[in-house]
């Protein structure tokens, strides 16, 4: 039967042509950023000045003076600080970005080891958040200055974006693989908890920041409770709604 | 066509009136204007060496011989020097003062003696190009003295126009800096700063001046030469408005109101017609940013900061170490 064969042939060629772009498309979709080296977040001249300036922060704070001293240390002039378009905020931002990127090197979870098994997703998030908070220790007496600068109207939005990137980094390093709406709620909850703990930390006078650790644990626990309650509530609402619909159906209503 | 030719005529009359510019080289001026007329037929051709002086450039919306532009600009500024400040206030509704204040505050000139050891060089060495009336220079010195407690920062004001410099010298007498060695005035062309040694300047500023230069690229390279490694080139200049609606209003204001104000207040319509035309001809933010990059500077961030929706913009460049 020639027509059948013809149609089969047609189908075959169609399938062949449609397969190739699909494969290429799938390959493109398999791009994972962690498999590729990322460009450095700062230009060489910027990072030379900023890395030298951050050493002056414990003494001079997040100020123009620290920037100028850093520029001098790096072999630049006072005036060279003009390479930083946002001035002091760039110094704050440098601290935030470098500490965020340092997380993946400072915190390691042995894969498959006993510890790795014992530490759940929540435990890993706690360890990572704590590690990031401890990275503030050298500048903790100046952190309120940094928070004040971040709260300036023009810097609020880049600061919040950096907070979101930190929350994402922590969940990513903890090994979170959620692909549902909890991807958003997890990051939002962690952002809120982290920023609250950081503000608490600026006033913490306890030895080795024991109070901060306790505060973080309490907030994470709150989050679990609230999350559990919301989960139970939605389950109850779902069950009730279904029952109501079924009752109506038993009465002969077409729903 | 008729209107344009009268506009060409008017600055030439002005030029003849000014003794200095007319006395300089009347012959060359004449020969150039014939060449200019030939040049008008062809549109702008990119040139390899822009300093040989035989090509054409734009003077507002007119096309003139390159050798002539300097004189024409000189005539414009000689005629506006005395009413410069009043006119700036009227044209920008006073906003130019805010721009200049912001420009200087952001550059934060001066070295605080509290954070520097005594062995190091004291103060900054600032070169203010096209700063004849001293607007930027006085602000720089005020900022250095009052904000950074720095009594050593020096400003050299350079301008090609002796009338503008005379205006600046006159105004300097009202400031505490006139007798001090911190302020000096030099008559110089920004494209040939022979009196300034290589790598000697911390900060090179040019506020509302670079638009009038015949060869902006040559001036940028000269800035690169005189700056120390790590030194900063900072430019405050009119630029392109971002918002279409605002641009319509701004264009209406600049092409109708400003020449009129010039005519009424300063009695000189043509100079202010040139002003708005030269603003229109100046490259956009990205274009000028690329010119700064081409001269070898590092550009901070995106390279510029818009002021008042892009009417003016601050461009900066840092000479790499």
Automatic annotation (TrEMBL), chain A:
Belongs to the COQ9 family. Keywords: Lipid-binding, Mitochondrion, Transit peptide, Ubiquinone, Ubiquinone biosynthesis. GO terms for molecular function: lipid binding. One of its GO terms (biological process) is ubiquinone biosynthetic process. This is Ubiquinone biosynthesis protein. It comes from Lentithecium fluviatile CBS 122367. Membrane-associated protein that warps the membrane surface to access and bind aromatic isoprenes with high specificity, including ubiquinone (CoQ) isoprene intermediates and presents them directly to Coq7, therefore facilitating the Coq7-mediated hydroxylase step. Participates in the biosynthesis of coenzyme Q, also named ubiquinone, an essential lipid-soluble electron transporter for aerobic cellular respiration. Residues 157-227 form the COQ9 C-terminal domain. It is found in: Mitochondrion. Coiled coil: none annotated. Pathway: Cofactor biosynthesis; ubiquinone biosynthesis. It comes from the Eukaryota. GO terms for cellular component: mitochondrial inner membrane.
TrEMBL record, chain B:
It is a peripheral membrane protein. GO terms for cellular component: extrinsic component of mitochondrial inner membrane. Its EC number is 2.1.1.201. CDD domains: AdoMet_MTases. It is an enzyme of class 2 (transferase). Keywords: Membrane, Methyltransferase, Mitochondrion, Mitochondrion inner membrane, S-adenosyl-L-methionine, Transferase, Ubiquinone biosynthesis. It catalyses: a 2-methoxy-6-(all-trans-polyprenyl)benzene-1,4-diol + S-adenosyl-L-methionine = a 5-methoxy-2-methyl-3-(all-trans-polyprenyl)benzene-1,4-diol + S-adenosyl-L-homocysteine + H(+). InterPro entries: SAM-dependent_MTases_sf (IPR029063), UbiE/COQ5_MeTrFase (IPR004033), UbiE/COQ5_MeTrFase_CS (IPR023576). Belongs to the class I-like SAM-binding methyltransferase superfamily. MenG/UbiE family. Component of a multi-subunit COQ enzyme complex, composed of at least COQ3, COQ4, COQ5, COQ6, COQ7 and COQ9. This is 2-methoxy-6-polyprenyl-1,4-benzoquinol methylase, mitochondrial. It comes from Lentithecium fluviatile CBS 122367.
């Amino acid at each position: 039967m020639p027509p059948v064969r013809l149609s089969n042939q047609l189908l075959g060629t169609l399938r062949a042509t449609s397969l190739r772009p699909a494969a290429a498309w799938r390959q493109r979709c398999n791009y994972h950023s962690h498999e590729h080296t990322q460009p450095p977040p700062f230009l060489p001249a910027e990072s030379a000045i900023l890395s030298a300036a951050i050493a002056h922060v414990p003494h001079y704070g997040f100020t123009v003076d620290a920037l100028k001293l850093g520029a001098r240390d790096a072999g630049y002039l006072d005036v060279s600080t003009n390479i930083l378009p946002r001035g002091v905020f760039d110094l704050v931002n440098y601290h935030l970005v470098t500490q965020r990127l340092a997380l993946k090197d400072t915190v390691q979870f042995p894969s498959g080891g006993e510890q790795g098994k014992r530490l759940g997703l929540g435990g890993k998030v706690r360890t990572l958040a704590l590690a990031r908070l401890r990275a503030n220790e050298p500048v903790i007496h100046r952190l309120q200055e940094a928070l004040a600068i971040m709260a300036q109207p023009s810097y609020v939005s880049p600061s919040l974006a950096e907070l979101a990137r930190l929350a994402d980094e922590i969940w990513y390093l903890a090994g979170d693989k959620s692909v549902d709406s909890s991807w958003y709620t997890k990051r939002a909850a962690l952002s809120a908890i982290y920023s609250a703990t950081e503000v608490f930390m600026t006033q913490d006078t306890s030895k080795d920041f024991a109070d901060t650790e306790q505060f973080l644990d309490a907030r994470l626990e709150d989050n679990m409770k609230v999350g559990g309650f919301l989960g139970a509530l939605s389950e109850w609402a779902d069950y009730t709604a279904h029952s109501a619909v079924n009752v109506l159906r038993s009465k002969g209503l077409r729903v | 066509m008729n209107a344009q030719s009268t506009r060409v005529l008017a600055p030439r009359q002005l030029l003849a009136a000014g003794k200095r510019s007319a006395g300089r080289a009347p012959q060359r001026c004449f020969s150039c204007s014939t060449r200019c007329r030939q040049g008008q037929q062809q549109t702008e051709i990119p040139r390899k060496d822009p300093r040989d002086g035989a090509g054409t450039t734009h003077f507002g919306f007119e096309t003139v011989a390159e050798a002539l532009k300097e004189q024409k600009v000189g005539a414009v500024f000689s005629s506006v020097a005395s009413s410069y400040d009043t006119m700036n206030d009227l044209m920008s509704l006073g906003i130019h003062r805010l721009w200049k204040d912001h420009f200087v505050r952001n550059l934060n000139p001066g070295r605080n003696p509290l954070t520097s050891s005594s062995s190091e060089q004291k103060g900054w060495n600032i070169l203010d190009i096209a700063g004849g009336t001293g607007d930027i220079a006085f602000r720089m010195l005020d900022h250095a003295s009052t904000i950074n407690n720095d009594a050593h920062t020096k400003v050299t004001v350079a301008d090609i126009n002796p009338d503008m410099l005379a205006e600046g010298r006159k105004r300097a007498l009202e400031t505490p800096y006139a007798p001090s060695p911190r302020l000096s005035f030099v008559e110089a062309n920004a494209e040939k700063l022979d009196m300034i040694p290589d790598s000697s300047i911390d900060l090179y500023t040019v506020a509302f001046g670079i638009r009038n230069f015949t060869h902006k690229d040559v001036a940028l390279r000269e800035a690169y030469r005189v700056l120390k490694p790590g030194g900063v080139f900072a430019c405050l200049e009119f630029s392109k408005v971002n918002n279409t609606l605002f641009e319509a209003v701004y264009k209406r204001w600049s092409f109708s109101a400003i020449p009129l104000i010039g005519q009424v207040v300063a009695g000189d319509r043509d100079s202010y017609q040139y002003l708005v035309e030269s603003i229109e001809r100046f490259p956009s933010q990205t274009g000028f940013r690329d010119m700064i990059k081409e001269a070898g500077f590092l550009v901070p961030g995106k390279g510029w900061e818009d002021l008042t929706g892009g009417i003016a913009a601050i461009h900066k460049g840092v000479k790499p170490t």
